[in-house]
Amino acid sequence: MRTGHIRSLTLIAVALVAFTANVFTQDRSPAILSTVEVQRLISRAEPGDHAGLNAHFAALADEYDAEAKRHTAMQQAYARNTKTMPALGTGMSAHCKRLADLSMASATASREMAAGHKTSAAGGTYVAPASNVPSRNTHAGAAPAEKAMIDLAATASTAADHRKLEEYFTALATRYDGEAADHAAYAKSWKSSTKVATAATSAAHCERIAAQRTDAAKEAREAAAMHKGHAAQAK
Questions:
Q1: Residues 6+ apart with CB under 8 A from 38
Q2: Residue 146 is part of which domain span?
Q3: 139 with 178: CB under 8 angstroms?
Q4: Is residue 190 a contact partner of residue 42, using CB atoms and an 8 Å limit?
Q5: What is the count of structural domains for the chain?
Q6: pLDDT tens across 113-168, in order?
Q7: CA 62 – CA 110 distance, rounded (Å)
């Protein structure tokens, strides 16, 4: 392989990494806690701990609602691309519709969790952890650059376009895998809890959200694979 060609491929890879970093920026609600902190609150289960968990799950519900709206906007954008690339537009619209539905389901389950903790809080006040305990979940990227992705979904036709969207959906899948692991960890903590009468119900809620995020990760990977295939065929 010629040196010039290798250099070109390297520059493309660097550009894609930079693009993905810009697409996912850390701008989450401060109410969203780290996995370690959520597990700590579950294990203590005092009124103030329930207040923190109420705020955490309510903020997650808002995030999932916003996410569903983004997926719906992407769905509509891909639908506009059906004239240029019928197979892509139809297939990606279906993937985004399923992603939106899964996000809405996670929002509903998270809001139910928040409501339960609000009842248990009974006027308690959440106290932030000491500095040696992470207070926010930073493993997952937050809101993507919406307009850029929506515009690209509506017009994608070149190999470069498809590579950008492949990276976008791959990053989403990685994020959703992390969220699924978080909720699975919460469920495990609830199952070992002996202080809360509704622990089994809370564990079931967390397992449901974990399954939804796992399904979303699978859906995002299938979307990424579709763009990868189109990138290989495009000029």
A1: 53, 56, 182, 186, 189
A2: 3-233
A3: yes
A4: yes
A5: 1
A6: 999 999 999 888 988 876 666 666 655 543 445 788 889 999 888 999 999 999 99
A7: 9
Whether 71 and 99 have beta carbons less than 8 Å apart is answered as yes
List the one residue out of 148, 146, 154 whose CA is nearest residue 79: 154
C-alpha of 201 from chain center? 23
How far apart are alpha carbons 198 and 115 in whole angstroms? 13
Report the distance separating Cα 22 and Cα 17, nearest Å.
9
Q: How far apart are CA 25 and CA 38, in angstroms?
A: 22
**What pLDDT digit, counting tens, does each position of 2-28 carry?**
455 444 444 444 444 444 444 454 567
- Fill in the DSSP letter of residue 189: H
Gap between the Cα atoms of 85 and 181, Å rounded: 36
Q: How far apart are CA 214 and CA 79, in angstroms?
A: 25
Q: Which two tokens stand for residue 201?
A: 């119900």
